Amino acid sequence: MNIPCEQIEELIDLQTAGWLSEEQAATLEQHLNSCPACLEQAQASNDVAGLLAACPAAPAPVIDVASFTHPVSAGKPWKWLVATASAACLLLVLRTVPSTPESPALAGVAELSEAPPTLATYRLAANLSDDDLEQVLDAHDRNSPLYKPPMTLMASRNKLEGLLL
Q1: Which residues contact 28 (CB under 8 A, 6 or more apart)?
Q2: Average predicted confidence (pLDDT) for the chain
Q3: Which of 8, 54, 66, 97 is 20 to 30 A distant from 35 in Cα terms?
Q4: Does 102 have pLDDT greater than 50?
Q5: Are 103 and 126 in contact (CB under 8 A)?
Q6: Predicted pLDDT at 103
Q7: C-beta separation of 151 from 159 below 8 A
Q8: What is the pLDDT of residue 59?
Q9: What does the alpha-carbon distance between residue 139 and residue 115 come to, in Å, rounded to a whole number?
Q10: What is the torsion angle, in degrees rounded to the nearest 10, for the CA atoms of residue 65, residue 71, residue 73 and residue 78?
Q11: Where are the beta strands (DSSP E) in 46-103?
């Protein structure tokens, strides 16, 4: 069986760590007998592992867990309760109170009929009943000349070109 050297490198690492299965060990041994480059790498890996094993390990620090106090028991536990309850109330209020005056709850047919025909107005009018929506659209149709600019950019450009010529 011809296994590429890249896969053998993984097997060398597993052998150095002591995690190689018997089947993998047989495959590795067969490849190392025929590949001097991989054999050299395996020997170098074993040498490094031996050097690391010979180094003395620093003792782990001892941590006295009993010396730590729980944040709630260290202070006044009711402060945490008050802060949490206040935050919950604030979220409840923010979700129930409309954030803008254009809220559908506040915009009726009269307000939308008088509002300029913008995308925001029509988004609010979409929540109305069909009859109310028709009233708003009729009001905008009646007032459409009020919302048109007296002169568009193209008309202004054409007028200026006419004056310059």
Answers
A1: 8, 11, 12, 15, 20, 42
A2: 76
A3: 54
A4: no
A5: no
A6: 45
A7: yes
A8: 78
A9: 10
A10: -170
A11: none
Handedness of CA 89, 92, 96, 97 (dihedral sign): positive
Q: Which residue shows structure tokens 């149709």?
A: 141
Contact 31, 8 (CB under 8 A): yes
pLDDT at residue number 57: 76
- Tell me what pLDDT residue 77 has: 61
**What whole-number distance in Å separates Cα of residue 111 and Cα of residue 102?**
10
Residue keyed to tokens 């490094």: 48
Question: CB neighbours (10 Å) of residue 72?
Answer: 12
CA distances from 160 to 2, 153, 155, 156 (A): 84, 11, 9, 6
Q: Which residues contact 140 (CB under 8 A, 6 or more apart)?
A: 113, 117
pLDDT(55) > 50: yes
Which one-letter amino acid corresponds to residue 10? E
**113-143 confidence digits (pLDDT tens):** 787 777 777 777 777 888 888 888 888 777 6
Closest CA to 45 of 74, 87, 16, 75: 16
- Which amino acid is located at 56 in the chain? P
Indicate the pTM of the whole model: 0.36
Mean pLDDT value of segment 89-96:
73
